[in-house]
Write a structure and sequence with these properties.
EC 2.6.1.1; Aspartate Aminotransferase, domain 2; binds glutamine; 15 helices; single chain; transferase; 2 domains; alpha/beta; PyrdxlP-dep_Trfase; seven-stranded mixed beta sheet; kynurenine-oxoglutarate transaminase activity
């Protein structure tokens, strides 16, 4: 029992969202937009439900959605995917990640991960029997370096679980870093599982580069995407997996015994959404970029050191320049300083955020706090107003 609890801890998102409800706080912790999502997609989903799209769809996903995923990635990322053999729909990206781990590793296999890491990764790797090998990314640049990769990869590396754009840092890895990583995967024969759920949430004119577009990775990478993130409807839990047919055959074995399918009405609405005009995606990015800038400016005005965010719904602040000595003096707040800061912030100021130490397996960076900016101006302003006295 104890070992199960150690391997499967309570997610920080549940903890912080519960505290946010208890304190009636503005929740800038868990990453979700506070608007209802694009009206046309919601209408398509409602129509599909009324039109009877309610029984099990094909295990691999509806043909309409698989085709739409292949078309979308051809247009946006230059990928050439066969919708029949190289695309699979899952119930969210988390299912896709869990399935990939169950399908691709044997107990004792080494898995390379990058910390800070999205909090689901490590528990899933451990429960699948994988042996984690952690690469540390260091603020404020959070760069992938050859030295760090060389320490993590061994001849026993079977899988790499990568995330780009990266949650929680907001980093978008550049082509040099991707090439470096691809080189290590090719040399050790590791499969690269790439969580690219934030592919459309990137700023300042950037374009997403998928690992599947690197020629040496085409046969050994698994790309994971998420409609919830693309359309800002995180509760929909419609994910997609793209991989070469040989890998896909193995991945689909895990999917059939996990969720088997994903609600067909949502799949049809997502298929419609992926075909939207280019301008819609660009305008959505621009809106999120404005929200990022609004929160960043507000937090800087309050005295926080705001770290750059090139993508995702998140920006981080470094607490180091603030005087946090009162936190150290309070025994009730024992634990990492960023966690103590977040517990105080939610209880006293009524604003929830996420301590970045929660994304480390050991020796955490404990002076960085993550805020979600995928919110209306009114929500951002209310949070800033409440935080007026905090620094
Ligand atoms: N992906 C979301 C985030 O990073 C959280 C999802 C969840 O609550 N499990 O905030």
């Amino acid at each position: 029992m104890n070992s199960l609890f150690a391997a499967l801890p309570t997610t920080v998102f549940e903890t912080m969202s519960r505290l946010a409800r208890e304190h009636d706080a503005v929740n800038l912790g868990q990453g979700f937009p506070d608007d209802p999502g694009p009206r046309d997609l919601r209408e398509k989903a409602a129509e599909a439900v009324l039109n009877g799209w309610n029984q099990y769809p094909p295990m691999m996903g509806t043909p309409e959605l698989r085709r739409a995923v292949a078309d979308h990635y051809r247009e946006w990322q230059g990928l050439d995917l066969d919708p029949d053999t190289e695309v699979m729909v899952t119930s969210g990206a988390t299912e896709a990640i869990a399935g990939a781990l169950l399908a691709l590793i044997e107990p004792g296999d080494e898995v390379v991960l990058f910390q800070p890491l999205y909090d689901a990764y490590l528990p899933l790797v451990r429960r699948a029997g994988g042996v984690p090998r952690l690469v540390r990314l260091v603020p404020p640049l959070w760069r992938l370096t050859e030295e760090a990769l060389a320490q993590a990869f061994t001849p026993r590396t079977r899988l790499v679980l990568f995330n780009n754009p990266h949650n929680p840092t907001g980093r978008v890895f550049d082509e040099g870093e991707l090439a470096l990583l691809a080189g290590f995967c090719a040399r050790t024969g590791a499969v690269l599982v790439s969580d690219e759920v934030w592919e459309h949430v990137i700023f300042d004119g950037r374009e997403h580069c998928s690992v599947l577009s690197l020629p040496e990775m085409r046969g050994r990478a698994v790309k994971i995407g998420s409609a919830g993130k693309i359309f800002g409807m995180t509760g929909w839990k419609v994910g997609f997996v793209c991989a070469a047919p040989e890998l896909m055959r193995v991945l689909s074995r895990a999917h059939q015994f996990l969720t088997f399918t994903t609600p067909p009405a949502l799949q049809q609405a997502v298929a419609y959404g992926l075909g939207k005009e280019r301008d819609w995606f660009l305008a959505t990015r621009a809106g999120l970029q404005r929200s990022r800038d609004r929160l960043a400016e507000g937090l800087s005005r309050l005295g926080f050191a705001v770290l750059p965010s090139a993508g995702t719904y998140f920006l981080n602040v470094d607490l180091a320049p603030l005087d946090l000595s009162p936190l150290d003096a309070a025994p009730v707040d024992a634990g990492p300083r960023d966690e103590a800061f977040c517990r105080r912030l939610v209880a006293r100021e009524g604003v929830a955020a996420i301590p970045v130490s929660a994304f480390y397996a050991g020796q955490p960076v404990d002076s960085v706090v993550r805020f979600c900016f995928a919110k209306t101006d009114a929500t951002i302003d209310r949070a800033l107003e409440r935080m007026g006295g905090v620094s």
